[in-house]
Amino acid sequence: MASYDITRGHAGRAPQTPLMPSFSSAPPVPGVVPNPMVQQPVMSGGLGVGTGSPITFPEEREDPPVAMGTNSGGLWGFFKGVAGNPMVKTVLDKTKHSVESMITTLDPGMAPYIKSGGDLDIVVTSDKEVKVAAVRDAFQEVFGLAMVTGEAGQSNIAPQPVGYAAGLKGAQERIDSLRRTGVIHEKQPAVSVESCITELLPDKWFDVGCLILEDPGNGIRIETFTQATPIALEHVQQAQNLTPPDYSLRWSGLQVTVGEVLERSFPQVSRTDWHLAFTGMSRRQMIFSAAKALAGAYRQQLPPRTV
């Protein structure tokens, strides 16, 4: 049986699929193994009869570099050129915010260090973290950057102030004591926090935090208060009974605090943060809320900064 001629009907050429490229390699060079991955693509045309012309694809060209100025100055010139671009600045700001968010998420304790700085320098008249941290978080949230530190100030009133007047006096005394001793200079902005108990309704007592911001340099003084936390009348009476009648500071309050009474009555309750046990909200959260309002009012009263 005669073999079948595969070139029959194709003008003497082997049959090819139309528009399918066939690759041809360059003649081998003695001693060099050809790389099968480096080939020149050649498209063989073949829809009609006759020898088709090979189709070559144009080489891709890279876009010409964009000049950032008459003198690029190398890499430094490039950074100087893009620094003023609003789009680049937005991207950099977002990147910075993302990095800061990642760091503070992994280690919340880094937030005070990242957000410290700027033109705002506030001293809190206490070395207790519950006050300093609450004020720091509030001012950094309002101003973005703020340097907030704590210095222990003396109130020179009863440990448990009674009434708003006594609470505000205790907060002011803490500021004055730091200025008198030279711990802070006379124009240093300061925030002071002092808690008091007060009878807002007949036989209904509440614990309230008094906050004062004093900025003599700008002639600003602001007072605000935390939310009121209810106290049982019996606990107030216990604190009164534990205070001697001849107590020298009785004019300003009681010798024993309500926190001490609650700690004695409820072993699981701490005198430093009994608010959390009785309301579900910590004292730090309460101070933070009031300090944030204080910072917002302060920002509104500050004179506009000149650039």
Automatic annotation (TrEMBL):
GO molecular function: protein kinase A regulatory subunit binding
GO cellular component, one term: Golgi apparatus
Residues covered by the Non-canonical purine NTP phosphatase/PRRC1 domain: 126-215
Subcellular location: Golgi apparatus
Entry keyword set: Golgi apparatus
InterPro entries cross-referenced by the UniProt entry: ITPase-like_fam (IPR029001), NTPase/PRRC1 (IPR026533), PRRC1 (IPR026534)
Region ranges (Disordered): 1-27
Gene3D superfamilies: 3.90.950.10
Major subcellular site: Golgi
Family that this chain belongs to: Belongs to the PRRC1 family.
Protein name, as recorded: Non-canonical purine NTP phosphatase/PRRC1 domain-containing protein
